UniProtKB/TrEMBL annotation, chain A:
It comes from Chromohalobacter sarecensis. Its EC number is 2.7.1.121. Residues 7-327 form the DhaK domain. PROSITE patterns: DHAK. Keywords: Kinase, Transferase. It comes from the Bacteria. This is Dihydroxyacetone kinase subunit DhaK. GO terms for molecular function: phosphoenolpyruvate-glycerone phosphotransferase activity.
Amino acid sequence: MQRIINDPDNVVDDAIKGYLRASPSLFAATDHSRVLKYPSSPSDKVGVVTGGGSGHEPAFLGYIGAGMCDAVAIGEIFSSPTADAFLEAFRAAPHGQGVACLYGNYAGDNMNVKMAKQMAELEDIEVKTVIARDDVASAPASERDKRRGVAGEVMMWKIGGAAAARGDSLDEVIRLAQKAVDACSSIGIGLSSCTIPANGKPNFSIEPGHMELGIGHHGEPGIEVAPLTSAEAIATAMCDPVLADQDFAGSEVAVLISGLGATPVMELNILYAHIAERLEDANIRVHRTDIGNYFTSLEMMGATLTLMKLDDELKPLLDAPARSLAITQC
Amino acid sequence: MQVLDATHGRDILEELVEVIVDNRQYLSDVDGAIGDGDHGINMAKGFRLCGESIASQSLSLSKALGTLATTLMGSIGGSMGPLYGSLFMGMAKSVKDKTVLDAKDFGDMLADGREALEQISDAKVGDKCLLDTLVPAIERYRDAVEGGDDFPHALQALRNGAQYGRDSTFELEAKIGRAARLGERSCGHLDAGAVSCCLLLTRLADSTEHRLEKAAA
């Protein structure tokens, strides 16, 4: 393994030390070593919390900040944070007006959030949740409950964070975050595997010269393994299932292209040029495009495409100011 | 009638900690074939922490199981923390006011643990998970007690059911967890959670039987 690490069992804690040292204006420690919070959250707003396994950087910590999330629970690599960590994140966030916990649909996260929510009730902290289910490859639209959350979570945090920042009530923040992630359809392609340092060997394998369409953020199986050809062919393979998922024609959309960790940003732009053509052909207007490493899978090669259908309610929230490691806009 | 003294739980718990810590590498190797390969690492971490926190304390069986549950929930995360945490919390609550357990109480304790686990998870028998061990073990134990077997024979039924359940996962196609990624390729391997559950139930039966023998002597 060619890695910049110390003890492979301590990579998560070692990384947290770096985040705290690098960005003290964005991150403050809490009573739980696996929970960080934004040090300048106003206390009278709805708290926005997320959390998940490590290895997806800049998710989840990169979305702490002004107009974004207030506290984040951090798990081991590709493994849910504990219920204790989620509970401490609820406490660390402003919680007098309630807490919106916005996270992705994975078995471990579901169980730990459920337990943390019950514990929070004992402390009179009201917690409501939105569970992201935007990965079109993980289940058909008729079984949306089974879908995993992927990069659409970024949109959910942005919309929920902006709604909380402007003073919306808990119910309203939840409604808008739910609307945001429901408006998202995402798909990933994987070109190579990734290695959890403590394991020391690749998690799965993709044959050279092939790509896996519909791969999940932890290497979950996709729709098909296909020969790896051109960026143009990849764009088509990604756009087809996403455009079939919702009626985007005639609408305005936001596009998020995220690398999975090891694909150069240059290639993400090559991919986007073809995606933009496809969207134009389908009579879809692009309101904004964000391209970069927003939600990764360690050093996997590949990318995700997220298309979010916009309306007059979502657009101003998406464009509202924010300051965080991953998204900063004025 | 043979009963288990439930006022002393620390030594039983220490045996459960021992079996998991001793099998750290084995559990990770089983998991490595079709999963993340971290099952032994995570389980041993949680059980070792529990062992440290109960060392030299005098605890009832309920308190000891409760400590194990909260330690697992607080230190493991992922899916195993809540699953095993709920199982042991359900067992702890079941025997909360008991000073002794007869064969039926012991079976109720396991059944209450299963119920708590099923409240937080949708996993089912056949998904290739720890329930594939837990459910047949509990059912065979209950059948033995209802059929008139004494406590030690019922414990043997528990062990047999757990081993049968563990081995049943070999042929199963994983429906949940990371191994589900492999589809048919997950067949031909044991499930790590089913293996750790079998180790725990077997050691719990051994440890209980040993105490029954000691009390009878």
